[in-house]
């Protein structure tokens, strides 16, 4: 007679109790919000990503990542968790903020595992190299700030693949080359590219951008300010293109930017006259066109703008200014050719400039062929 194989009841009970305890501990953790990489697959992926980043950091003088140990990634410094957008019962990493950490290192490809990340703030560190190729996997990323680092290479094209990105800050790095025109077709609220080595021509589709802030200072721009800039009238609050090598006229369409509060075109090679259309910038508070080669008269309507508090037009070749310009809270008209005003250019310098062949600007604000009389 064959003996049946049997399982000891106490052993079965032990297994059942162990499984029940495991399920119960997971349920309690979920209810109490104590989810970790041990019981949450999303946080497990985040753990892998964050540990890879920690290994890629070569210097951490402020010890920001000291507590990046163990499965409780939501307790890591600079890591912010919230309810997953597609699962109300699951926690996920939604933000990573290590701004001003003075961290040195590079970005690992594993950052692409943070697929629910909405905010990535890593400014004012010493990260070098390039952004990871896995960046497009961050489909929910809303804000990307890697400014004030030591990033090199070309413009990170994979930014264009981020469907929900609204804020891009790449300023104060060593990025170089062209900036793709497609950037200005993205529905971005802010574009900061300044203080890099980008060398490109302002594209005709610049005006497609719905951004409220565009900063292109201290770059190497070519070409003209395209007339399409006028299409940004309903959204653009700040346009800063100082010291960017612009060599053109100021197009009339700049005067259509009714929401503009700051316009800085200083330290370029702008020529021609200040457009009368700028008198339509009723929200403008700060206007700086200093250190260019503008000439003629200052339109009275510009100095009559109701919100204008700071108007700088020094180091040009303006010949006249309305008296009301001097009533603006802060005005700087030095080193022009304005009779009767102090600290102006020498007379011979003004005469030499005014005897140069006049600059002809076409309908696009670009230099046209010289006018022959």
TrEMBL record:
Q: Which InterPro entries match?
A: Leu-rich_rpt, Leu-rich_rpt_typical-subtyp, LRR_dom_sf, LRR_extensin-like_regulator, LRR_N_plant-typ
SMART domains attached to this UniProt entry: LRR_TYP
Q: Which Gene3D superfamilies match?
A: Ribonuclease Inhibitor
Protein's cellular compartments: Secreted, Cell wall
Q: Which GO terms describe its biological process?
A: cell wall organization
* Signal peptide, first to last residue: 1-33
* Highest taxon of source: Eukaryota
Keywords tagged on the record: Cell wall, Cell wall biogenesis/degradation, Glycoprotein, Hydroxylation, Leucine-rich repeat, Membrane, Repeat, Secreted, Signal, Transmembrane, Transmembrane helix
User: Which named protein is this?
Assistant: Cell wall hydroxyproline-rich glycoprotein
